[in-house]
Amino acid sequence: MSADKRKVIIVTDGDRNARKAVEIAARNVGARCISCSVGNPTRQTGEELVELIKTAPADPVVLMLDDRGYCGMGNGERALAYISRHPDIQVLGVLAVASNITGGGGCTVDLSVAGNGEIVREPVNKVGKPGGKLLRGDTVEIVDQLNIPLIIGIGDIGKMNGADDVKKGAPLTTKALQNILSRNL
Question: Which among 58, 122, 63 is positioned nearest to 91, based on CA atoms?
């Protein structure tokens, strides 16, 4: 990849709890978080978000996208597809967040951060329990169709029965971001 491409990590969650946890985790790993990308669902288009990424003072940039429980191609997934295919952006990885959706698809993961903090080679559910073939989430259905080098699964960011609480420094989200960065930078 070209050195002048902006390096981005995408998180497939954008609610209030996720925002706080991702902001803390990004700070913990020395990344820049574009907090205005939050929303449930994502409000900005992929084009608007690429422009925001380009204005970030440094890499890597962490961006949150959300479909608000919509199964199928929602706002967050449309933005994810656009950003991941943009010639000025290098997506380092996706932090695929599990949810309680029923129906719809999911995505494969390269590894996951379980609710107990262990790195596992299978998807996890919303509370971070490993199991299954696909990570089920509302903003992950398109992930397998994109050329993303690393997909890390995680339970509900900022929660997971208190294991990822922001008062603890969002340790599981931090660990997931560290794994993406250690494999890319």
Answer: 63
